[in-house]
Design brief:
The protein contains 8 helices and no strands. Helix content is 88%, strand content 0%.
């Protein structure tokens, strides 16, 4: 690769940085190549010894993330330019993707944990409902085995139906509260993104 090709690729990869930073970086590597050539290296050897221009550009961009954020906040940029800037930031910082993924997993885990409460309540409602219905239905047949056994079945059935009603009402109340909390939290998260997008 020649010096001209190296600097051309480097400048292209640094397109998202402010022009002043682009020029400073290109001039730095141009002088670095010339210094190596003055030390006796050929042009190709000097370029090869510096490294991959795309990798070098990524390193420079990571060191100048603050300026990238300022560029994002600039209202004069088009949507395409802003998308390109975001792409450079995300691709240039793999750690961010991991953090974002972990955050999404935490939010989803929170939703899952919250919704297990009404799910457990519904399970108890179903279980006590089955016990209650079985107790009431089996009462006439249990009487033939003894009045006491029949009364026991009827009492168990009534108790099951009562507990079913309690758990059903509690589960319904909890579900309404959780739906409201989930809706408010989701609205809060979406408003954060909309506000960020509006500022960009």
């Amino acid at each position: 690769m020649t010096k001209k090709e190296f600097l051309s690729i480097l400048e292209k990869e640094l397109d998202m940085l402010p022009r002043e930073e682009q020029n400073r970086t290109v001039i730095y590597y141009e002088e670095l190549i010339e210094d190596r050539m003055e030390d006796g290296m050929t042009e190709e050897e000097a370029v090869r010894g510096i490294g991959n221009p795309k990798q070098l550009a990524r390193e420079v961009i990571e060191e100048n993330e603050g300026e990238l954020w300022e560029k994002i906040e600039n209202p004069n940029h088009s949507l395409g330019a802003k998308i390109g800037i975001w792409a450079v930031i995300l691709l240039g910082s793999p750690l961010w993707a991991s953090i974002l993924f972990a955050l999404i997993l935490c939010i989803l885990s929170g939703y899952l944990v919250i919704w297990t409460v009404p799910l457990i309540g519904a399970s108890f409602t179903l279980a006590f409902g089955v016990i209650g219905v079985y107790g009431v239905i089996s009462f006439p047949f249990a009487v033939f085995d003894g009045v006491g056994i029949g009364i026991f079945h009827l009492g168990t059935g009534m108790l099951g139906l009562g507990l079913m009603l309690i758990f059903a009402l509690s589960t319904l109340w909890m579900s309404k509260k959780i739906i409201y909390i989930t809706w408010k939290f989701t609205k809060f998260i979406s408003s954060r993104f909309r506000r960020r997008r509006g500022r960009a």
